[in-house]
């Protein structure tokens, strides 16, 4: 009996170590950066700056902290991810999840750790990463000049046992001035835009609150995103069990997978996020999709790119500083003097129209108004869903979209991008 117990104990220790080795092998095989994919994602993020949050897309990671990047002999043996949070942000992730537990740490006292555990902290290790370390990592990334026009949503899964002052102290010390705060206990409004938040010099939205205290309620928005794992119908139906296609396109809803060994073998894991699922999700305008384990060269991240054609925009394309939506729905750089029809959008109804006549890119605003009235403006699709709506109106022909790099510095921006954020 003692021998059996010893063998079982060793097996329990060996299996997590085996998966660490497998993750390391996968990571080394996928560690080379892919410049086009990363650039396309970074450019795409800026497209929905003037859209309501409910119509925006946030690439997301579930259990973002549970990564091989933080694995030690005493913690994170069964990770969801391979990349650190900084690497996830560099890759284009703009919504993350942190499970915050008030539990025993290495300082021989209770503190806030990031733990993949139960409400009673079962599964937590004293070696798990401190909340403070991750918030410092996020703070460092956000304050880089190149990132000052980036908005990050953080879902705080609350296992604090009422220790909100300790969590608030960490948040306020490092990112307090960057937090977009509710003025009372309320849910995150779906109608506010990224632009409105960023122009107030705020870069962080916190969700997962429960109205426990006044200070917590005016820092963390109540509740979190509706979750529809296993019920997303895909494109073109675009529905879930609880939500219509219109709701999916106009409200932040999430789906994600759980790639941990424990969940796959002993739990009830959500369906995998395959490249096809990712493609369908962005085509439907679904706001948050969490693929894991997230790796570089990830085919699912490539499937999330609905805008630029592969290897576009070319850095060597001299004289091509304006953009068309091609016959396949993907973006291509073109000389601004070329002649195409214009993409026009009614911002009130989200209806797209294409002008019956062509011209150079510069006359797009006037041509849209002349053709369809003042409610229509020369515009660019802000999501995969909008891109497909426009494509239906083009009759298979390339059309101008209000997207450009007129200064020739590689800063491809929608025509209404606020000048106050361009140089940040």
What tags apply to this protein structure?
single chain, 424 residues, alpha/beta, TIM Barrel, 2 domains, seven-stranded mixed sheet, five-stranded mixed sheet, 14 helices, 30% helix, elongated, disordered N terminus
List the helices and strands and how they pair.
Elements: H1 2-29, H2 35-45, E1 58-60, H3 85-91, E2 95-104, E3 110-114, H4 131-142, E4 152-159, H5 164-175, H6 194-198, E5 204-209, H7 214-217, E6 221-222, H8 245-250, E7 254-256, H9 261-266, H10 275-284, E8 288-290, H11 299-303, E9 322-325, E10 331-334, E11 341-346, E12 351-354, H12 364-372, E13 376-378, H13 384-391, E14 399-404, E15 413-414, H14 419-422
Parallel strand pairs: 1-8, 2-4, 4-5, 5-6, 7-8, 11-14
Antiparallel strand pairs: 2-3, 9-10, 9-14, 11-12, 11-13, 14-15
Helix pairs in contact: 4-5
InterPro entries: CTDL_fold, PLC-like_Pdiesterase_TIM-brl, Telomere_Capping_Maintenance
Subcellular location: Membrane
Pfam family, one: PI-PLC_cat
Strand content: 15-25%
- How many beta strands in the DSSP annotation? 15
CATH structural architecture of the largest domain: Alpha-Beta Barrel
User: Looking at CATH, which topology of the largest domain would you report?
Assistant: TIM Barrel
| Distance from first to last alpha carbon | 66 Å
The biggest beta sheet reads: 7 strands, mixed
Please give the CATH class of the largest domain.
Alpha Beta
Order of helices and strands: HHEHEEHEHHEHEHEHHEHEEEEHEHEEH
Instruction: Count structural domains.
Output: 2
């Amino acid at each position: 009996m003692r021998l059996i117990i010893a063998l079982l104990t060793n097996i329990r220790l060996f299996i997590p170590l085996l998966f660490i080795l497998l993750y390391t092998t996968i990571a080394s095989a996928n560690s080379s950066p892919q410049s086009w994919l990363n650039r396309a994602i970074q450019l795409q993020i800026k497209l929905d700056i003037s859209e309501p949050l409910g119509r925006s897309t946030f690439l997301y990671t579930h259990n973002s902290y549970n990564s091989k990047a933080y694995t030690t002999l005493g913690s994170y043996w069964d990770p969801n991810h391979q990349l650190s949070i900084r690497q996830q942000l560099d890759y284009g992730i703009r919504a993350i999840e942190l499970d915050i537990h008030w539990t025993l740490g290495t300082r021989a006292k209770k503190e806030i750790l990031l733990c993949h555990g139960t409400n009673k902290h079962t599964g937590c290790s004293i070696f798990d990463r401190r909340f403070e370390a991750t918030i410092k990592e996020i703070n460092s990334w956000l304050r880089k000049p190149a990132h000052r026009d980036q908005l990050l949503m953080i879902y705080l899964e609350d296992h604090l046992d009422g220790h909100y002052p300790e969590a608030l102290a960490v948040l306020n010390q490092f990112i307090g001035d960057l937090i977009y705060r509710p003025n009372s206990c309320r849910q995150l409004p779906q109608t506010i835009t990224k632009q409105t938040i960023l122009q107030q010099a705020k870069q962080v939205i916190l969700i997962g609150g429960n109205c426990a205290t006044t200070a917590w309620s005016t820092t963390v928005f109540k509740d979190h995103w509706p979750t529809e794992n296993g019920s997303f119908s895909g494109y073109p139906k675009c529905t879930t069990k609880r939500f219509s296609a219109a709701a999916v396109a106009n409200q932040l809803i999430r789906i994600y997978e759980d790639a941990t060994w424990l969940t796959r073998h002993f739990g009830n894991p959500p369906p995998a996020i395959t490249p096809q699922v990712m493609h369908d999700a962005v085509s439907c305008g679904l706001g948050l999709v969490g693929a894991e384990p997230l790796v570089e060269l990830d085919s699912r991240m490539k499937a999330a790119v609905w805008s630029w054609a592969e290897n576009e925009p070319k850095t060597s394309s001299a004289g091509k500083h304006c953009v068309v939506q091609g016959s396949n729905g993907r973006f291509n750089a073109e000389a601004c003097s070329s002649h195409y029809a214009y993409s026009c959008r009614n911002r009130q109804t989200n209806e797209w129209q294409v002008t019956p006549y062509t011209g150079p890119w510069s006359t797009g605003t006037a041509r849209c108004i002349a053709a369809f009235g003042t409610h229509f403006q020369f515009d660019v699709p802000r999501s995969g869903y909008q891109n497909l709506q426009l494509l239906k109106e083009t009759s298979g022909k390339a059309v101008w979209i209000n997207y450009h790099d007129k200064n020739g510095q590689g800063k491809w921006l929608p025509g209404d991008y606020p000048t106050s954020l361009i140089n940040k």
